[in-house]
Structure formats: structure tokens, C-alpha cells
């Protein structure tokens, strides 16, 4: 299999660098730093150290027996990224990026966040290394993810509300890019997903690929063989790329990315960029985007703030076009059912993002033989979503 | 008009920018390049504004194609884009507007925007339509030279200049890669930051401009943050063109319809007056 991306960050027609000239030297410097240090033994050893001693890796691959029974088909294994320090896979990437930022001598870090998981992970590593940190977050997301806002503030980060556009993740990213353009000389932009200008999609994928590397080893030990299917939710798609990457060469392993179907793709109220969008350019890369006929980016909807983004990582766009990975949708309602199913059958409260993957897994496992093996990336835990979920179920907290 | 004719007029149209710089250069003058967002407050008003600012001394007009996610813009132009989109502006209307203005004025027009609306319109189709309408140049904020190959080829065929930004962060390597693809003029961004009026300009800009001149014979316009006749005057002492955007957009945003043209015209005239002052040249 050809190694992607190419030198300019292209995955087929996707990816690349579509950014203003001010940032070009910055992303080239970052690429140079990543190639110089990121691939070296010393960096890798330090990265591995923090993943082990600070994040708590390896995360378990847990055989969810009661969920398996409920689905009545394939054996379902959960890759427990929810057990990572800070409660989601996002920290794998922020550790990698802060180690680079330190080597590059950057004095300040910034990040965008949707659900707040990446913001918390960025604020966490900034606190850990004593760097000032500013997090951009859409005003609407601040409202629906308030526990994470408190966490970021407690960690010493400045949380800046973004009031432009749709006041969600895409606008937070616009504002973070504006900050970076202005403060590029001393600021490191920690992008939270496998999107943005090259080298971010490649670099974030590499940092997250530990998920799949571990899962591949674990499933061989636990099930005695490679899985039949991998399942992960896809907003920008970093947990999915993380899980899929180590298996891309295993041609018999089927992979499914689950997009946020919102109220249904046909209603227009969703965040399924691949299933409901078409190729275009936003935030530094070419990829599938939700847009109107004139190329204006349209408002997205998902019950899960972390999936509420009108684009998707360019490597996913490529894997979709080549057919290597299938991309499907799960609606808000189905995700809530997935949330309930996992909580009640396994005593694990998943993030609403991850609940999309769980909901699809239950449907798909049902149609598979009992001998089949499925791995679901449980990308994060659901504490941050209790407010949203209790409202959806009409519970009184 | 057939495709063949497009090609011919395109070639001629591309020369409007050259002609302005050449004519001004011959008498030691500098180009005043003004930016406004198309469709703010609406297309009819933008047409009148373009004619008015051209009559009041704008040598080149940058016409912003509004985009939902203007990442390189500060609050002023973000708000202008939002107003324009809310009023229903589309890239097609912007191109049609160019054609309307072209009937009444020979002012060079540079379409200024983000890549996605152009990409969705179709690169070839956009180049042809812009050429037929009488546009002279295109500047795409988020399309660096590395990704511009296909669009550049289409614009060349249509006889339209592709104008690039260079910035204080552009090192020699970046300057080389960029000037190789550039035509019309170089837009030098005076600050590391987003668009928007600023109180003071960096003292380093003249040095940057000298550095860029080592790599290209193209005229150099300097912009981002220039908001007063005094600043325009200073910049015109070392650059071939002075770009004013947000300050003019602010004048437009804060003017009632009845005084819109009068205020915009007066502001542009005041910028031009400072630049024509030979004492600083």
C-alpha cells in the first residue's frame, strides 16, 4: 500500500495546504520539526513514557459480553479510550503535540474545541508543562458542555467564547486560526483532529495510531485472530483514524466510520460530511464538506458537540473514495439508544460521540455470526454529556 | 460572447492592472487599491460604491466575494461578509456586478475571496465568467502557490492575473515559490494577523518590501491595517500601491444609505490626496 500523504500532504485529491500565506512558513516549520524530532527514538521514548505513566496506556480491549448478548451476534470488544486520563482519546494527540511545541521553543499554546474534550486535553498538557493556554470554543458549545469549560478553567486555560457564525466547532477553529496568524512567532496551535493543513492530518493520525496498534495486538491475544470489523465515530475523525490506521493493510478487516446523522440526513439537520456533503476546501484542507451550492459552509446539527463539524479529515475522504472504509450514519435518537444500551448492559457511560459507534455496532453485530469479532472504539466517557442526555430522556437531575 | 472572444478580451483585460501601474509609475504616482465586500449592503449599492470610489481616486478595486468562514479576516470584514450573505449574495451575482460596472468604468477589478466558493463554481467556469465580465485579477486568500497550479492555468487561459499575498513571515523560499506564479502585482501583508484597521504600522515593512523587490519586478501593494490618509502617505513612499480595506468597509457600515456614496467617496479622496503629495515621494 502506498504511503500517504504525499510530500505536500495530499491523500489522493484531498488534504494539502489551503491557508493564508502568513501561516505557510509556520506549518512548514511544524512539518520540519515533526520530521526531525517526531520520528526519532528520543521523542518516541518520551511520548511512550507519558502515554504509559500519565495517560494510563495501554487502554484495555474489553470484551463486552452483555452488550454482545443484547446484540445477539458478533463478539463486541470495546477499545477503552474512555479510560484515558481526561476521559477521551484526545490526550494521546495533545501529549504528542506539546512535546513538539516544547522542542520548537514555543511559549504559548492554543486550541479549538467542540465538546470540550480536546480543549481539556490541551489545557491538561499545557498545565503539565507550564505553558499558557487559550482555548477557543463556540458559545453554543460552552452552554451545552459546561462541565468541560470548568475543567479547562481549573486547569488554568483561558476559555474564549466564539460568537461568530454558527458558534460551534468550525467557528472555534476559524478563531483559533486567526489567533495563530496573529501570534505565529511564539504560539503553537494544537489541532484536535485529523484535519487542517498538512502536516496536521498526518501528525495527529500518527499520534492517535497507538489506539489501533494496541488493539491489533490485544485482539490477537483475546480472540486469537484479527477482527472482522472495526467501528468508530467520525466527526473530524481522529479516534477512527487512530483505530483504523494499524489495520489498513489487513485487507480482510472491514472498517466502518459512523457519522452524526442528527435528525436524519434527509432533513438537512445533521453533521454527516461524507454521507451528505461533497468535496471542498475549509480549514486548510480539501475534504468532504457540508455546504450549499455556492460553497458556503452550512450549519450542522448533532446531539453530540464533538461530531458537530461540517468537515472530516482528508484521509477519511480518501478512504471513502477508495472504498477501503465504509461510512454510515447514526441519528441523534439512535445514538441515545446506544448510550442507554451500553450504560445498562455494561455499566459504562459513553460519550455521545462514542454512542454513535455503539449504536451502529449493536445493529451490525446482530447481522454477523457469533464467531465474528468486532472492535468498537469507545472514544470517550459520557460524564460531560449528562446534562444533554438527562434532558433528552426527561430525567430530573 | 463565445469562448474565443473571452480569450481575447481576457488578454486585454489582464493589462488594465499593468496599465494602471505603468501610467502611475511614469509620473511618480502610486496606486490606491481599495477593498469592499460585494453585496454589502446589497449589490446595487456596491455598484454605485465602486463607481464612486473609482471616480474619487481608487486606481484598482478589490471586490470581496463573501464567504461563510473568512478565516483571514478580522471583525470588520467578517461582519461585512455576514451582511452580504444575509442579503443573499452569491458568487454569480458578484461576477454579474463586475459586468455591470465594466459597462461604465475601466477601473481594474480584482476579485478577492476564499477558495471554496470558486472551487464549487468550477475553476475553468469561474475563470471564463470572470474574464467575460471584465475582471482583471483574482486573489484567493487561502490558496498558496503550491495548490494554485490548476487555477493558475485556467486564469492564464482567460487572461486574468492571479495575485498572491506575501507576508512578514515569508522567507526567501516562500517568496521564490510565490513570485513564480504571481502576475499583476504582489500584495504585501503589512502585519502578521488578520485584516483590520490598526493604529500603528510596523517600521519593518519598508525593509520587507525591499526584500521582496529583490525577487520580482512586479509592482508591490502594501495592505492590512492601513486606515488613515497619513498611513497611506507613508506607505506610498516605499510601495507601488496602498491597499485600504477594513477602514473603507467601516465607513460603509457606519453610513446611512443617504450619505453612503458621499462618505465613501470623501474617504477615498482623502486617502488619495495624501498619496499624491510629492513632498514625501
Uncertain residue ranges of chain B = 1-14
Biggest sheet record of chain B: 8 strands, parallel, barrel
Q: Kindly report how far apart the N and C termini of chain B lie.
A: 44 Å
The strand count of chain B comes to: 8
Unreliable spans of chain A are none
Q: Report helical residue fraction of chain B.
A: 40-55%
Strand content of chain B: 5-15%
**Mean pLDDT across residues of chain A:** 96
Largest interface: A-B, 37 and 41 residues
Question: What's the short story on this structure?
Answer:
The complex is a heterodimer of chains A (397) and B (281). Chain A has 397 residues and is α/β, with parallel strands linked by helices.
Word description of this protein:
The complex is a heterodimer of chains A (397) and B (281). Chain A is 44% helix and 18% strand. Chain A is α/β, with parallel strands linked by helices and 397 residues long. In chain A, strands 3-4-14-9-10-13 form a six-stranded mixed beta sheet, with helices on both faces. Chain A has a four-stranded antiparallel beta sheet with strand order 1-2-12-11. A four-stranded parallel beta sheet of chain A has the order 7-6-5-8, sandwiched between helices. In chain A, helix 4 (90-103) crosses helix 9 and helix 5 (117-129) packs parallel to helix 7 (146-154). Chain A starts with 9 loop residues before the first strand and ends in a 5-residue tail after the last helix. The mean pLDDT of chain A is 96. Chain B has helices at residues 3-26, 43-55, 75-86, 91-102, 115-121, 123-133, 149-158, 172-181, 205-213, 229-236, 246-253, 260-276, and strands at 31-37, 60-64, 109-113, 137-140, 161-166, 186-189, 220-223, 241-244. Chain B is 50% helix and 14% strand. Chain B has twelve helices and eight strands. With 281 residues, chain B is of the alpha/beta class. In chain B, helix 1 (3-26) packs across helix 6, helix 6 packs parallel to helix 7 and helix 10 runs parallel beside helix 12 (260-276). Chain B has one domain (15-274): TIM Barrel (Alpha-Beta Barrel), CATH 3.20.20.70. The A-B interface holds A 8, 16-26, 164-165, 170-171, 174, 177-178, 181-185, 280-284, 289, 291, 293-298 and B 67-72, 74, 78, 82, 85, 90-92, 114-121, 141-144, 146-147, 164-171, 174, 178, 189, 192-194.
